[in-house]
Amino acid sequence: MSVFAIFNPAAGRGRGARRAERYLALLRREIPHLEHAFTQAAGDEVRLVEQALAEGHDSIVAVGGDGTWSLVADHILRSGRHVTLGLLPAGTGNDFGKSLGATHARAEQIVRGIAEGKRRRIDVGRVNDRHFLNVVGLGFDIAVIDDAATVPLLKGDLLYQFCALRQLFRFPGIPLEVTTSEGGGAKIDHLMLVVANASYFGGSFHIAPHASLEDGKLDAVSIANAGPLSRARLFSRVAKGQHEGHAKVTVRQERKFRIAFDGPIRYEMDGEVYSSQAGSLSVEAVPQALDVFVPAG
User: Is CATH 2.60.200.40 the classification given to domain 135-287?
Assistant: First the structure.
């Protein structure tokens, strides 16, 4: 096994830099012939993946958060090469890692799993030609991401929870229509729409409790707009994964969804914000697309 590690020192507002020394020591202890590099600027992960592929590595470890993991996974998949992805958490939310048990507290098990070659074949999602690992979100979560950029003192799950609480009283809602191959309903005013490949988003919200990384489907969680107090009660349930069955919540599992909206829109994919002028988005599952390392034990 030939392993190349990509470190993003800017992940998690500098958390990536602080964790780099420990992670590098763990990797070198278990993988003697490890090669590694650090990103120099936003999006530099793509250049380093290309370097790793050109050098013939069959395993790439991404040290960062959801954005780093997503960029690396997307470029591996675009290459068409059979490369296994390892995930070491150093970002703000590290949401996708929670679905694999890849949390900071289990760093030693993660590295041992890489060294022992413990793999799992998983589904990914795709919007147009861009792959994602965790979720695509529209509405409320964009407001939370924007708000988080204005709060310099908080980090991790607490940052998202604080900003979510503020946006419960500020976000106006967004009209969206969600359709599948079986058809769809009317355009309704949404608080939020999340199309999930995995279970968690926003730091700690258990948005898709029944999502599977191996079922060939995505879970579309539609939450209709509501007043601030109803929103607060809803989010308390979302945090515990107890929102399914609520009158404001609709959950559908399908291979592909089409999301229609009025005018230009911004959406997030694995924590990074994108924009669309097209009036609709097509979001689909790509079954059994990627090998990932899982923690030992």
Answer: yes
